[in-house]
Amino acid sequence: MNGAESLVQTLLNSGVDTCFANPGTSEMHFVGALDRIPGMRCVLGLQENVVTGMADGYYRIARKPACTLLHCGPGLANGMGNLHNARRAHAGIVNIVGDQATYHRPYDAPLTADTEGMARTVSHWVRTSTDAAEVGRDAALAVQNARALSGQISTLILPADASWNRGGVVANPLPVPASPAIDPHAVENVARVLRSNRNVLILLADQATLATSQRLAWRIADATGAHLLASYSNGHMQRGRGRLALERVPYGTDAAIKTLSQYDHIVLVNAKAPVGFFAYPEQPSIQYSSSAQIHVLSRSDQDSDVALTMLVEELGAREIAIPDAGCRPNPARGATTQENLAVTLAALMPENSIISNESISYGRDFYKLTHNAPAHDWLNLSGGAIGDGLPVATGAAVAGGDRRVISLQADGSAMYSLQSLWTQARERLPCTTILLNNRKYNILIGEYKNVGAVPGPTAMGMLDLSNPDLDWVQLANGMGVEAARATTMEECADLMQQSFKQKAPFLIDLII
Amino acid sequence: MNGAESLVQTLLNSGVDTCFANPGTSEMHFVGALDRIPGMRCVLGLQENVVTGMADGYYRIARKPACTLLHCGPGLANGMGNLHNARRAHAGIVNIVGDQATYHRPYDAPLTADTEGMARTVSHWVRTSTDAAEVGRDAALAVQNARALSGQISTLILPADASWNRGGVVANPLPVPASPAIDPHAVENVARVLRSNRNVLILLADQATLATSQRLAWRIADATGAHLLASYSNGHMQRGRGRLALERVPYGTDAAIKTLSQYDHIVLVNAKAPVGFFAYPEQPSIQYSSSAQIHVLSRSDQDSDVALTMLVEELGAREIAIPDAGCRPNPARGATTQENLAVTLAALMPENSIISNESISYGRDFYKLTHNAPAHDWLNLSGGAIGDGLPVATGAAVAGGDRRVISLQADGSAMYSLQSLWTQARERLPCTTILLNNRKYNILIGEYKNVGAVPGPTAMGMLDLSNPDLDWVQLANGMGVEAARATTMEECADLMQQSFKQKAPFLIDLII
């Protein structure tokens, strides 16, 4: 058995059965091993940021890591933007990066790069296996790290000779690492704060925004009068009817400061104390009141379900149903506005859909207008590196089976990883992309105005996406994805309904 | 004057007048400064690997650096693949990477990343300006480093507050660094080797493959009987009629070893001693004879024109014209074959064209079949990280003014940075893309067979680009580029001639 075969078998034994791939020459022995050892679903992406973004989306829905297959340092580099996003979303990923043979590296052949240096900037765990006999053991460790409760990025660098040499040893799966225990004193302290104060915010993030923690948090809010909010940047939220209508801290600094200023105490449940996405002149980095007290119930690597259960018990909070989010609306008619699109989405999305939200400026209100949709999963761009929406949707669809995936996708950010559409077509994934076509980097035009001026011709040359207009119907068709343009909500709703019936991708070029 | 304004004015004073950009929020003050201070041509790319690849292509033709404008660590990461290629092509680039404000960085907001760590993996020079007063000085240093004879990658990281704070100071341009002097003893030694041995190879790379060094090398070959070859991976060669029909060391290991085995002495002129692009089991890393003597006339950071002039004088080599490369051929007819396309290209390309060659497997023979084309510049993928062909072509066209740029572009690698086509359309660049559409990663199918087997279904799922076929006419049209399909050489030749008349981009989807 060669090193590559021990790697494939160890990954399968450890529960990793999906590989998002863009291979090159150094990975051919791994590809050969995948041919000989059955059980791994391999999904090709035509650019590496699509590959890593798919692995991120896969984890968020499957709640277990996939592996990626990347070619040398530059192949890893191409995928680092979405590894940054995955790290912020706490997605577990096992990157397999082929590289120069150990004895060939000193010759500095053209593709030789500082692969480890690149990997360290986005990974929690990095190792180069320099011997076929170590590959299985290292792969089991890579999976173990990735499977931590708060998923981690593991990067295993595989020199070509470690892959092709004989002497591979399949390793047994390693246990999932235990998450750090919740401190009972922290629970007691938070219970005391909640009992004795009025202006308390419980801020939820990540696991704490999923259904189980929501139900517990609601019992605590009901028992104490505390307010609940979610952080702005959560990779994965569960919402819609039957779930909590949980608002998020606003993106804009002024609005966030206004929202948070009323709280004297902030209890963090897997959340970080809120700070601005960016700094701005004359505005503070910290968005909460300088006199507010911060109390950590649980960190991002701890189990929020356990923490909140302990707090419910400490408070003796009663069982109580989550309030109904209201009737499902009817589809909107007429002009394509933010509100009309959000209402139509809530009206038409199938039960148990997955939303991949990279709607940027146009979608700022989508979230709060869709609480009364059927139960669904909502995936956000959590690292701010644009270009994750379409890859995350694609990977989520691979994990989701027959579940409908709907991308709310801004046009500027769609262009970063439009190659995703081809993978959606090849895999016949049930992905509906609503492409929000405003022909500009609208968020940046807003940011420019914040700097204090109207953009002149030079600035607009870098902020405007018209001249020429992108034709998204042709771009989608060119990659084998059926598509059509909509200029009214009636047209958009018709196309949504038509797409939701097909187990195949579709793109709606929505002119806004 | 704020830091951003001092940066723009210092760049302009230092001769950097072209900015390839994909800005974000942290760069808005720089964008604002570009609006207020005239003189910088700003070219928008819709993904950062397009931006950095354009800067590479620009340098290769303009022989001076452009700057890039990138957004935080992830924006830099997206562009690192082509920075790797630019480093291998010895292209000088000044990257300006906006980042979190200095005082905001400790809060670890979502886009915060290890920007310096990322930059170091692909840059010769990295600095973070933490104060508006330092930005001008640091920018002048960044340009100075990039302008070294063998161009370098400089990365200047600009926290948002260093950009917006008052106190910017415009810096004077710094002198271009002198390249290390040629050692007269090395010249004497090489002259001695050439005089006293028969089997001598003079291996040229980079600057030594441009017209001036070629003429000098030819005089030396004429005087001594030495053979001349170029390295396989050169970013920029000057060739066609009036230039030397300089063959390259073959890509394939067996062919390279066979070619090089006959030489007892190898004289390196800005070249590295040839090694394999990759290692393979049972094959050596080094491609030359183990008994061959290696003699370094000049390193890659030295001036090959000076070194070869000294050698010509030492040898007293006579003035002699470069041999004629033969008549310009007529366009080929019939089937789309490698040879037919190369001949047609030689027949039709305008004088002084620029070829951007990322033809990979299909284009292996293009080079040797185009010696008798009109004089032209030939730009190769020199770092092996696929996806540089279209961006390099685009940047070369920005530098080239009215010069025709022709991309020989494989389909698989085109998909890595297809967004380049949009920039070609926006800037109305005279770029003709000949898209070599074989619907597979053909080089990898060959590499898989080298591993010893025919690809099975799992492997082919990662090597085959059909199902669905990419429709390159629609993809190009979707980005505003006129395009048509050709299935015969007659159709291809007609489209080439039609395109060469227009100052606008065109894509020929050539079915091969």
Automatic annotation (TrEMBL), chains A, B:
InterPro entries: DHS-like_NAD/FAD-binding_dom, THDP-binding, Thiamin_PyroP_enz_TPP-bd_dom, TPP_enz, TPP_enzyme_TPP-bd. It comes from the Bacteria. Pfam families: TPP_enzyme_C, TPP_enzyme_N. One of its GO terms (molecular function) is acetolactate synthase activity. Keywords: Plasmid, Thiamine pyrophosphate. CDD domains: TPP_BFDC, TPP_PYR_POX_like. GO terms for biological process: small molecule metabolic process. Belongs to the TPP enzyme family. This is Acetolactate synthase large subunit. The lineage of its organism: Bacteria, Pseudomonadati, Pseudomonadota, Alphaproteobacteria, Hyphomicrobiales.
